[in-house]
Structure formats: C-alpha cells, structure tokens
Amino acid sequence: MNEQNVARSLIHQIETVARIQQVKKVLAVVIQVGARSHVSSDYLRDCFSRDSEGTIADGAWLVIDMMEDTTDPKAGEVVLKTSGWLAEGRLEAAVASRTIGCRTTAKHEE
User: Fold this and answer.
1) Contact 28, 61 (CB under 8 A)
2) Gyration radius from the chain CA atoms
3) Given this model, what pLDDT does residue 98 score?
4) How far apart are CA 57 and CA 43, in angstroms?
5) 71 vs 88, higher pLDDT
6) How do residues 32-75 score in pLDDT, each as one tens digit?
7) Helix (H/G/I), strand (E/B), else coil: 81
8) What is the CATH number of domain 3-109?
C-alpha cells in the first residue's frame, strides 16, 4: 500500500469529518493499521506530517495502532478512528461505529 496515498486519504477524511463536526483544529488522530496492510508506520507518519501542513490537521499527533491479528477482517485496512480525536481540547466521543471507503485506501470509523 502506498503510504502517501493513505496519508492523503486520511487527511481528506479528517477534513470532511471535522467540517461536519464543526471542528476548527485537530490536535491528535488515532488510526488502526491492519497486520496485512503492508504499511510502514514510520513512513506513514512522515507522509502524514508533510501532507497535513496547512490543513486542519497541521501539527496533529498521529497515534498508530498496529494490529497484529492477520485473521482480523480489517487486517488489510487502515482505519481512521474519530472516537480518538483530540480537537480543540476535547476528546470527540463515538456515537456509532461504521467504516467508509474501500480496502485499498484509508477508512473512517466513528
């Protein structure tokens, strides 16, 4: 999987969800990276840092949960967990759980 494309997809999803939730600044983002996603956490962090410059997520702390279970249904995915957002000093709470996107790009879950 191309980390640059994943980072860009994450940033797009962050901006979309932040706009809906009327968030002005995202301070931290939590993602899950599946065991079979072939994503390098270090390279993804670098891409995210570079590509988020000038966006609502500029300077945001990227928390990466590397999944180890290769049999998990999400083992080939990268999932954005908006329940782990820290935005403007408050932790966003999850209302429901859902996944948006396709297997080859980053996904979003509340």
Assistant:
1) yes
2) 13
3) 29
4) 17
5) 71
6) 899 998 899 999 999 999 999 999 999 998 989 999 999 999 88
7) strand
8) 3.30.2320.50
pTM as predicted:
0.75
CB 84 within 8 A of CB 63: yes
Domain boundaries, the chain: 3-109
Q: How far apart are CA 81 and CA 96, in angstroms?
A: 11
Q: How many CB atoms lie within 10 A of CB 27?
A: 16
CA distance 63 to 31: 6
> 23-27, 32-36, 47-51, 80-84: which range is least confident on average?
80-84
Which amino acid, 13? Q
